Amino acid sequence: MGAWLRRNWLSLLLGITSVALAVWTLLALFDLLAVMKPLGSGV
Amino acid sequence: MSKTPGNIHRLRLGSIARKGAASLVLICFMMLAPVTIVFNAIVTPLTQAESWHMVVQETRLGERSRSLLAHFVVSSALQSGQQADFVGDFSLRSWESVAEILFPVEWVETSYRETIDAFLGWVHSNQSGYPLVELDLIPVKQTLSGPRGALAVLPLMQGFPSCEPGFSQVTLLADQLITCLPPDQDLTFFAGLIARSIVNYLPNQISLQSLAQAGVLPAQIEKNLEQARSGVKTAQAAAILGMRASLLLFCLYAWLRLTDWLAWLRKLALPLYLAGGLTALLIGTWHFSLAWGGRMAGTMLFSQVDVETQAWMLDGLKAFSSMSEKQALGMALLLVSLGAALHLVAIIAGRRSMHHAAITTIESTLPSRGKFRKQFR
Known about the structure:
The complex is a heterodimer.
Chain A: H1 2-41
Chain B: H1 5-46, H2 49-58, H3 61-64, H4 66-80, H5 84-87, H6 92-102, H7 105-123, E1 134-136, H8 138-145, H9 147-153, H10 169-174, H11 187-201, E2 205-207, H12 208-213, H13 221-256, H14 261-301, H15 307-365, H16 369-375
Antiparallel strand pairs in B: 1-2
Helix pairs in contact in B: 1-13, 1-14, 1-15, 2-7, 2-15, 4-6, 6-9, 8-9, 8-11, 9-11, 14-15
């Protein structure tokens, strides 16, 4: 496990960062959809 | 994993799939990042009060729009007091003379500053109804009541026709403020009279609410303002989404191209170069399009307004565009510099590693120190 971590720590870090960024991007998408809703309803 | 032919085939397929996915991610990043950078550079100044203040100052909007503002303020105020006929069809030149006396540039600039702050404050809030935009007319009323009031009104009276015989001052002021001038009368006297009458009709402040209540503003303006606010909020949310998605794509690319350190650093520079270069290209295209076709596009876009307004609208557009260009070019430069820095680190580290490998190889071919000593003992 220790040796595997030493060998693949960067890959693991980039993987975790990608997942975190994906969640962050999804949140931004939901924000955009929430803002666009009143625009579509013609308020 | 053992190196059986099946495993080697699987590894090769995996590597091809990884490279394909990395290329796809790179293409998506290349298309999204420059568009996002440019879009963000356009949206940010439009939603910041400081940039609007700067544009107002750079385009000398206060000075250039005084006559229009004078027309708007006096006509709106008088319309709310049912005195619309007075302002009839005076030329912009007449209003310019009025504005010179009644609306000092400092007052106009302060009014614009307050209006921008109030409007953008409203845009960024969830407050319903009209933005709390208010113009303070007390200084205008003070000038009108004084000796300069008659001087301000005088140019407006140049085009008044003579009254029919038998008109008295009372009849003159009964229905409308004034529509004709009795012959052989002192114009200055009537100008003073009109100035004082305007003071009576002008409120101390005019706001969007008061103008809407008086029916001066068209009914759909509240809906239009609300739509503009939704548009701004949508644009801001889209810019944030674009930035985060670009970051995600870059991170995915870095993950998919992860091999040995040096090759990885060199590969990381590529998307940064591409995004920076394409951003600069987009900005360059926009800059030259505006420089060559801006006037024509402006005339077409703002065809419903007069030439003077068209000119300052175009100047405003250019000032905003210049701010956006600077921001986007700064970002492009940052990306290219970051790419170059990664590239440089990879080159330097690569040379050092090659140097180290060469020394290790030479040392391994030489006899060990013990053996060497024994030979010469």
